[in-house]
Amino acid sequence: MGRGFNTTLGVATTDRIVTTLTTNAAQRSYSIWAYWRGAGGGGIPQMFMKPWTIGFQWKDSLNVVQFGYGFSTTPGDWTVPEPSHDAWHHFLVVYDSSSVSNNPVIYIDGVSQTVTETRTPVGTADTHTEAFYIGNQDNLAACFDGSLAEFAVWNALLTSGNATSLAAKTLPTAIGSPVCYFRIFGDDSPETDATGNGYTGTVTGTAKTAHPIGVTTQEGYRWRLDDGTETTATWAANQDTGIVAPANSVRRLRLLLDTSGDANAANYQLEYKEANAANWTAIS
């Protein structure tokens, strides 16, 4: 499940995720999936932002998506045409802030867009250490109205091939070494960083919505003896309770899985690993 923000798909205009990612880098790439449902807060609904430094907004009133970056004298702003409403779209922003002459490369659904510079940056790139926000800004005045998922950041300039892969639902952890990656599951609070770098996201409000890539979550398990059919075999323990089985005995494992998005069409492989073993073994 993804997360819905604002009053249509979420809870309130105060919905947001505040991450613990505060660092800056001259060369960065930002990836997120978004589903537009309404105009959002203040006409500048933030998909993600970092106060004083970065803003990525879906400005439907102007039919554009805007990326902004802070500089010491004048911030820079760039826009691309907005995609269709009421559908999931993938966005990738690739930007090198080391020179005011650089423009971002912005991909929507894997396709590089025509970028228009609406305000020319002047000075040196901002290095404030405020945290990244997802779905709103720090003063709660720009709540995104729709669903968001799969926010990732790299300290690198990703390529057009990377954009194609991400839009085709390749996970960010399979592309280089992202600094952080929040899958934005509707059940997780706080949101956790899938890179293992230890960042978290404090969730306010939001609600479960569909997920663009597809998520399978194990909701429970239960062991059975091998003494009957799928419906009559004796339960060996309560739900979500482990067992110790005698050597060479047969036990059955029933899993309760919750799927969303494209997860129903995925291929699954059950594996096991013996205690202290290095590798997992597939069960056929």
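[next item in queue]
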Amino acid sequence: MKAIIISLLCFLALLPLRADDAPRIPNALNSLLPKIRAGMTIHGVEAVLSTAYPKMKIETSESGDDWSDIAFHLDRRFVLSIFFKDRGNGKQVILCGEPFDLRDVTAKHHVVWSLSLNAGERLKYWLTTKDIFDQAKLDGVDYRKLLRAAVAMDAKSLSAIFQYTANGPNLMGAGADDNCDILHQLLIWWGDRKFAHVLSGESLKVRSAVVNAIEYAWGFPGWKPNQFPETYQLGIHYKVPIIPYNAKSHRGP
């Protein structure tokens, strides 16, 4: 039940705030997105979406030896793009680390939302990767141990991840990108009040590093002050222009 609630909150948090900013995700689709999970095949996703979009069309946007970028044309307005990867048994499935892209092709600039799987699944995925853990090891930090404990709601471990975010000398490149998404998912997992309570005990330098890492990982149209507001106000935000996510220019692992 906790995972379902977190998943729903994750999707709702990404909705545009005002009608003049961008159109909202259709209610029919928003109710189906939490049902799309890591490990599902293309046919499995089709079965979920076809309950609301029986005339949906499916095409392969791009593909490689072991991956496919599949576009689900829901109607004349919305296209949901999902990245699938071959797991070695001939079946291509959704990887937990990959976001979905929802495009409104009628919008002036092809508005895109980057939609995450629920935080529990994302954090489980990150525990199977290596970039962030290898980099942290160079700094004498057992990041995997800290992350496992932070997922188990250990405040000291969460604080240690905050401090490493601000002070890790080898935290850069792919590992830094991983750390940004991990912090974003930990915020969702812990909830705004508990996460902010731990973060509030850090210096302004650390607090700002953490909120800007989360800001970096936030999908279009960006982190708004009324989304996780207690955490949002704890650091100085160094705003940079946010470009809508382009599925064709991004490839997963």
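[queue empty]
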